[in-house]
Amino acid sequence: MTELRKLPEDFLMGGATAAYQVEGALDIDGKGPVAWDTFLVEKGRYTAEPASDFYHQYPVDIELCKKFKIDSLRMSIAWSRIFPKGYGEVNQKGVDYYHQVFAECKKHGITPFVTIHHFDTPKALFDDGDFLNRENIKHFVDYAKFCFDEFDEVYYWSTFNEIYPAATNQYLTGVFPPEIKFDLSKTITALHNMMYAHAQAVNIFKEGSYEGEIGVVHSLEPKYPASDSPEDIHAAELDDALSVKFLMDATYLGYYSEHTMACINEILAANNTSISIDENDFVEMKKAANRNDYLGINNYVSHWVKAYNDESQMFYNTTGEKGTQVYRIKGIGERIQRTDLPRTDWDWLIYPEGIYDLLVRIKKDYPNYQKIYITENGLGYKDTFEDGIILDDDRIDYLRGYFNYISKAIDEGVNVKGYFIWSLMDVFSWVNGYNKRYGLFYVDFETQKRYPKESAYWYKLVSETKTII
Ligand code: BG6
């Protein structure tokens, strides 16, 4: 019998959520609109009302955290609850709401781990160009500072959730509003502007007298060449430069390395476009580069990349119909579907070794990283609910696989301090609606009743014993 792996005694076990995906209450108590509100209605899709009704159910969810030994709740603040227009007048009811949530966390000994921006820029600023508009960087930084000043109950701050998907889903895959496809110039400009905004927020935090830690949450997905051919090796390198190195360089170097920029310029040239980056931004970014207290990593998948130089093509599987995803970007590559590996109904390859490769690489390439929290990982699945019982063995297998590789990386000296499952409870998914469930707790979206899945009991045991069973 093989010995079960252990996690460090102080390893934090958390559950992750995001305001727009759980709160509901989209237009009450003075909350301002976000682009998603109208976008989803216009598309005739599901909406995020009432989602998991966290706006009202938060005492139930926080109590569940306590009951199931979930030490920390990763959540985000909805920018437009605080500043309905994104700037200017403060909505006191929104401020009060988050104070109540943090008080409830305190009551149960649950640590809030708070993201400032999770895909929900207020509509007024979004319509004005979102992070393509440099004016909005200032509004974001003011909002971040407001949060630092106001919510001293919060110790852990993340500036942004997933800068890469935020920009690519808006301007490359086009699955988020404003649904622009294959615009590499907009994509990379938005990435840079958000990294610059992150740096400014970190510097304000570090130069203020705030108690706590600050970091950023990146979605990092390992890229492997689809074959040994030099073309495929180079395609994987290009994809990695845009989706990993561009962000990690900005975060931990405060500039883009020569190699990263050479890849970015090659991608831009292949798409007949260019960008301009103000060199002055690097002053602020370099100052922030050694000030990140932690790195949050969201990782679900890994990719195998094949050279691709024809016109870009994209079909994003939002239906759960396996085998429908197509991802080909001109001048970067094609992310192929390896049929020999397990994958979800949404075509997300399941490859737990990937998280190990990623962690080991970060330690090597960015030795000033301090520490890491896995801020999202989990299995999106069509759970079956029978008489209040949800047997989600596939999710447990998925989690066990990832935990084992995280623990292997820890054993090899990578400083991983905690893990947040995506998601705490079932939530609204931006592009998939409600049938792709991730939660430890099943939500009946009609009654808003919560039911622990089998995985919730597994997670509790792991948390209690720090043993990966
Ligand atoms: C991450 C996001 O990209 O993945 C979450 O931070 C998101 O907001 C999660 O819900 C899962 O993605 P999806 O598309 O399966 O809901």
From TrEMBL:
Pathway: Carbohydrate metabolism; lactose degradation; D-galactose 6-phosphate and beta-D-glucose from lactose 6-phosphate: step 1/1
An example Gene Ontology CC term for this record: cytosol
Catalytic activity: a 6-phospho-beta-D-galactoside + H2O = D-galactose 6-phosphate + an alcohol
The keyword Signal belongs to this UniProt entry's keyword annotation: no
EC number in record: 3.2.1.85
GO biological process: lactose catabolic process via tagatose-6-phosphate
Gene3D superfamilies hit by this protein: Glycosidases
Domain of life of the organism encoding this protein: Bacteria
Active site per the UniProt annotation: 376
Record-linked SUPFAM superfamilies: (Trans)glycosidases
GO molecular function, one term: beta-glucosidase activity
PANTHER family assigned: GLYCOSYL HYDROLASE, LP05116P
Name of the protein this chain belongs to: 6-phospho-beta-galactosidase
